[in-house]
Amino acid sequence: MDPITAGILAATLVPLANGAAGEAGRQAWESLTSFVRNRFGRGSDADTAAQALASHPGQVVHGEVLGRLLEHGAATDEQVAAWLRTWLHDAGPLTGQPAGTSVTNTVSGQAQVHGPVIQTHTISGPITFGPPAPVPPPAGPATGTGAP
Fold first, then answer.
1. 10 Å Cβ neighbour count for 7?
2. Least CB-packed of 7, 48, 106, 134 within 10 Å?
3. Burial of residue 10 (number of CB atoms within 10 Å: 0-12, 13-18, 19+)
């Protein structure tokens, strides 16, 4: 069974909040927000995050916050996990995301990257960048005098 992660949730939540998939997307979004209100309560952190995403759908950070809250809910409550699995299965394809297999990676804001960045969904096994490739000596005239 695929894990329910904040990244997978955000990759589905953000496009739906932005109006993806027309009427079907609107219904999926309403289903999610209704579930959040009923399960976590009006004014809960999850409800507040859903409202923030609905009010500012272009700000991915709101989708990431809601995704993390729902991920935590799924990890601590099997009923929440079961509902979210079904919802992701139905809503994921509306956004062009295969159900439960997509993630959004972002390097933004004040981030300063000094070296390689890997953005991926799942990694199995180690990742190594290794030492840098040796630099060949500069080409130039031969400097030896030869044998006498």
1. 18
2. 134
3. buried
Contact 75, 89 (CB under 8 A): no
Max mean pLDDT among 35-39, 98-102, 130-134 falls in 35-39
Angle between helix axes 6-17 and 45-55 (nearest 10 degrees) is 40
Answer yes or no: are the C-beta atoms of 102 and 92 closer than 8 Å: yes
- CA distances, 130 to each of 75, 122, 126, 127, 134 (Å): 36, 21, 12, 9, 12
pTM over 0.70: no
Instruction: Determine which helix (DSSP H) or strand (DSSP E) holds 67, and give its type and residue range.
Output: helix 60-76
Q: Identify whether the C-beta of residue 51 lies closer than 8 Å to the C-beta of residue 17.
A: no
Q: Which two tokens stand for residue 2?
A: 């695929």
d(CA 67, CA 132): 38
By residue count, the chain amounts to 148
